[in-house]
Amino acid sequence: MLRVEMAGAGGYGLAEERDPEAIRADIAQGKVTAAHAREVYGVE
Questions:
Q1: What is d(CA 44, CA 36) in angstroms, rounded to the nearest whole number?
Q2: Which of 38, 18, 11 shows the shortest CA–CA distance to 27?
Q3: Which of 3, 29, 31, 37 has the largest count of CB atoms under 10 Å?
Q4: Is residue 2 over pLDDT 90?
Q5: Three-class SS of 11-31
Q6: CA-based angle 25:30:35, to the nearest 5?
């Protein structure tokens, strides 16, 4: 048996409507880079 877990998914809703604090938590946990958050979510 092989199990692979990856961060991220298609999700639902508009990316720009995501809670900025949740995005910052993702950055802090290494789930997304700051550059990706800036490009996709508009979060610094």
A1: 10
A2: 38
A3: 37
A4: yes
A5: CCCCHHHCCHHHHHHHHHCCC
A6: 85
User: For residues 38 and 44, is the Cβ–Cβ distance under 8 A?
Assistant: yes
Can you give the pLDDT at residue 35? Answer: 96
Torsion sign (Cα): 30, 21, 40, 3 = positive
**Phi, psi values for residue 10, rounded to 5°:** -65, -40
Residue 34 token pair: 């700051």
Count of beta carbons in the 10 Å neighbourhood of residue 12: 5
pLDDT digits over 9-37, tens only?
Answer: 667 788 888 999 999 999 999 999 999 99
